[in-house]
Amino acid sequence: MKLQPSTDKALYSYPRYWAECYGTAPFLPMSRAEMDELGWDSCDIIIVTGDAYVDHPSFGMAVIGRFLESQGFRVGIISQPDWRSAEAFTVLGEPNLFFGVTAGNMDSMINRYTADRRLRSDDAYTAGGQGGSRPDRAVVVYSQRCREAYRQVPIVLGGIEASLRRIAQYDYWDDAVRRSVLIDSGADILLFGNAERAIAEVAHRLAKGQPLAEVTDIRGTACVRKQVPEGWLELDSTRIDWPANIDELPNPYAEQSGVENCSSAAGEPADPGEVQPLRIVPQPIASSVLQQQPDTPVYIRLPSFEKVQADAVLYAHASRVLHQESNPHNARPLVQKHGTREVWVNRPPIPLSTEEMDAVFDLPYQRVPHPSYGMATIPAYDMIKTSVNIMRGCFGGCTFCSITEHEGRIIQSRSEKSILREVEEIRDKVPGFTGTISDLGGPTANMYRQNCKDDVIQANCRRLSCVYPTICKNLETSHKPTTQLYRKARVLPGIKRILIASGLRYDLAVLDEEYVRELVTHHVGGYLKIAPEHSEEGTLEKMMKPGMGSYYQFKKLFDKYTKQAGKKQYLIPYFIAAHPGSTDQDMLNLALWLKANNFRVDQVQTFYPSPMALATAMYHSGRNPLKRLHYKRGERVSVARDLSQRRLHKAFLRYHDDKNWGYLRESLIRLQRRDLIGDSEHHLVPPEHSSPRRQPRLKRGKPARGGQWSGRA
Q: Given 131, 438, 659, 710, which residue has the most CB atoms within 10 angstroms?
């Protein structure tokens, strides 16, 4: 297969738009009065967002807005508009180029509803923390109101809600497969992933007068077409990985000719019945055509919306193929028919270079909320106002997580100089700064500058995770750059302490004991959160998470260096209830593990089927898309779908809560484990009519017996 080019147009290679003469705005304007103060008669681009506007690099509207401003465009913000009419979408007038529509930093449905589908009363991204300031499916509603306000203005979708809904996707709240958000919203184009490259190209093309209907070839974008372009070879996804008895077809796990296989090099099993990284081998017909026409571009046709809506196994198949086509260096465009229209998904964006990342994070952010919010608190801002994002992306590939689907597996790291400069900026600009940086991290705490050692192998790899089922030998696992960064940051003048709050990938950390010593000695604020997620191997396999051996290894090092430092510090373990593959017996085993290790968790996470995640495909189909799919004999996955079973799984994690005891007693009897009902220490719950078991009174943030965490998990 011919590889795609590994480079793309540099972010700052475009001539600046003529409006650069207006200079930099103190804040991107949210009213006509602010526009008048800036001398603007109009905005070139208006960003509509479901979040309160905070001019900070952790907020998407600020990053994209400031970036477009650096390209010379006049950018306005409409934050959390009243979506019940189009009037609120006219406050800044008609934009000259386009509306950029985003639900905000979170999917609006996840923001508004709990995993039990209950409406939340709060919203961390709203001033005052009050819920109800954004609609359900905000991207769709905002786009429709923009169209009502100014019918002729192009609409560009972006952000995580749009990114994860770019093709037909299972919707947990409807319990059905929904169409691509492009179809439902009526928008003109969708940008997925971190969108600086795509938004720059879209904006400059529109500024030159090119109609958006002709902008169909930009990486990291999806659009609706009446028909696919001429001159391309179509490869049907079912010829790649047909969900039936495919024993007679070429093995899709075989190595590609002439390419060193990342997986086999790491010593992984070759049995196709085992959990393995996914890769594609062209079928004979496609191969013969490509041999005759080696320069012919190829796209992959996914099953149509109508087919995946009606067939859950085909949905899992489409999800499997989409995840195979996620490496920007070898991915091919995808197309999926919706009725008479084609949703065309271009190849993923090329990751930003370190220099480009630095430029994005060095933009003139005020690092505070817009003045219109007055003294109102914005909880999400309070959580991150003294934190620094040092990288993007995650190669962990956890099936329940959407980071990889959005940001990609290739780590994009900032330079040490840029990060230290931002630490100093926080010190000098953030009101009330006390000398503590709350986090140096990102999607994970310890993947900074960790990438594939070989560019050729990386360009050909289709592995879903660099660390599961084993850590790839081609992965750079040294934490030396991170350790060096920590040391330099904490000695800056005015900096008293650097904490690490991002989740730690502990199976990586144990490979670099010096890093663990540095972290535990200097950067743990009493508690360090890690995520075993479960104790049972079968469930961990469905999560693509390491076994408990890595946890015990890390805990041993953590305790060792905590003792050497003369501190009292504790691990905060995170667990997920009701994940696909987890049975009632698995959850009971996890509860017994928690009890044996003296954990009494106050808050737990129930599996939330987010759009596009592989675990969501498991939840919807009851099949395992990590393995070859079959209709009759494919691996079935246990799924806790009904609310009562999901609540039971959650109750197992809170076995110590007397509100759950009656429910758990019934379940233990059903599971034939009456031996776990009683008043002694080895019992899980007391018998009925027994006086409540005396438990130590625990204050929040204090360790239970055994020196382990009793608080949030």
A: 710
Q: What are phi and psi of 691, to 5 degrees?
A: -65, 145
DSSP codes of every residue in 321-338: HHHHTT-TTT---EEEEE
Q: Is 50 exceeded by the pLDDT of residue 435? A: yes
Q: Helices 614-621 & 312-324, crossing angle to 10 degrees?
A: 170
* Residue 38: Cβ-neighbour burial (10 angstroms; 0-12, 13-18, 19+): middle
CB 307 within 8 A of CB 167: no
Give a three-class secondary structure readout of 42-106.
CCCEEEEECCCCECCCCCHHHHHHHHHHHCCCCEEEEECCCCCCCHHHHCCCCCCCEEEEECCCC
Q: Which of 545, 532, 542 is nearest to 471 (CA)?
A: 545
Query: What distance in Å separates the CA atoms of residue 223 and residue 213, rounded to the nearest whole number?
Result: 9
From residue 106, give the alpha-carbon distance in Å to each of 38, 79, 131, 302, 657. Answer: 31, 14, 14, 27, 31
Whole-angstrom Cα distance, residue 584 to residue 177?
A: 27
CA distance 215 to 156: 11
pLDDT of 447-474, one tens digit each? 999 999 999 999 999 999 999 999 999 9
pLDDT tens readout for residues 656-667: 999 999 999 999
Is the predicted pLDDT of residue 256 greater than 50, yes or no?
no
- Please write the tens of the pLDDT for every residue from 348-368: 999 999 999 999 999 999 999
Q: Look at residue 264 and tell me whether its pLDDT is greater than 80.
A: no
**220 close to 193: Cβ distance less than 8 angstroms:** yes
DSSP-assigned states of every residue in 490-523: HTSTT--EE---SPB-HHHHTT-HHHHHHHHHHS
pLDDT given for residue 476 in this prediction: 96
Q: How far apart are CA 152 and CA 99, in angstroms?
A: 11
pLDDT at 678 over 90: yes
CA dist 23 and 37 (Å) reads: 13
Q: What values do phi and psi take at 667, rounded to 5?
A: -70, -40
Question: Tokens 């959390």, residue?
Answer: 80
Task: State both tokens at 184.
Answer: 């439902």
Tallying the residues shown for the chain, one arrives at: 713
Instruction: Please name the residues in contact with 576: beta carbons below 8 A apart, sequence gap of 6 or more.
Output: 400, 533, 534, 543, 604, 605, 606, 607
- Say if residues 540 and 546 touch (Cβ distance below 8 Å): yes
Taking residue 223's Cβ as centre, other Cβ atoms within 10 Å add up to 21
User: How does DSSP assign 168-185, residue by residue?
Assistant: -EEETTTTEEEPPHHHHH
d(CA 59, CA 54): 7
